Amino acid sequence: MRKIGLLGGTFDPPHHGHLLIANEVFHELELDEIWFLPNQEPPHKEKSDLITTEDRLNLLELAIKDVSYFKVETIELERSGPSYTYDTIKQLKDRYPDNLFYFIIGADMIEYLPKWHKIDELIEMVSFVGVNRPTYQEKTTYPIIHIDIPEFHVSSSLIRERIQEGKSIRYLLPDSLINYLKENHLYESK
Fold first, then answer.
1. 26, 57, 87, 188: which is deepest, by most CB within 10 A?
2. Strand-by-strand arrangement of the 33-38 sheet
3. Does residue 188 form part of some domain?
4. Could you give the residue ranges of the DSSP H alpha helices within the chain?
5. What total number of domains does the chain contain?
6. Is residue 65 part of a domain?
7. SS3 for 23?
């Protein structure tokens, strides 16, 4: 059985925080790979629609290209409508019956678990891995594998804001992504 970590998100844009979480979980749980799952339409928040799905995918591919155990899985981009984790895990388990899946969530999502679509069925299909996030509690009645991650306060919304304000985003995301964003004038004020 291969052990696969799953990290979902809009990745709008991906940043060093995403990479740090993926790398820490990979090593802590001794996984075989981490699959990044860019979603089409997140059910719990609005997608920014500032860039295309193709650009988000290109940025994600650039971010992980030098890490052999990172992979992009586009299963959620292949479906229309909200990207419910239950549907994704069901499809992944059908496609890859010999894999054990570990779904990585931040502490903000741990608090939100009772509201997840088909959470009781989902909890039987996948192991949840909760990573710490400042200002959020990690309390839940659901079984969660807790992993401490070095604190790195960065978010995709912070990066988008800084770009629109003309501020530096250096060290918040890989240089290759910064170059891609600049070359394509992404997130700049209109």
1. 26
2. 70-72, 33-38, 2-9, 99-106, 127-131, 144-147
3. no
4. 16-28, 53-64, 85-95, 107-112, 119-125, 156-164, 175-183
5. 1
6. yes
7. helix
Going by C-alpha positions, the residue among 157, 185, 173 that lies closest to residue 51 is 185
Residues 75/99, Cβ–Cβ less than 8 Å: no
Token couple for 139: 């309390």
At position 114, the amino acid (one-letter code) is P
Pairing mode, if any, of strands 33-38 and 144-147? Answer: unpaired
CATH number at residue 73: 3.40.50.620
**Structural tokens at position 53:** 């799905």
Please name which of 78, 118, 120 lies closest in space to residue 95, comparing C-alpha atoms. 78
**CA 162, CA 47: separation in Å to the nearest integer?**
18
The domain of 123 spans 2-152
pTM: 0.91
3-state secondary structure of 147: strand
φ and ψ at residue 51, rounded to 5 degrees: -135, 165
pLDDT in tens, 78-128: 988 788 899 999 999 999 999 999 999 988 788 888 889 999 999 999 999
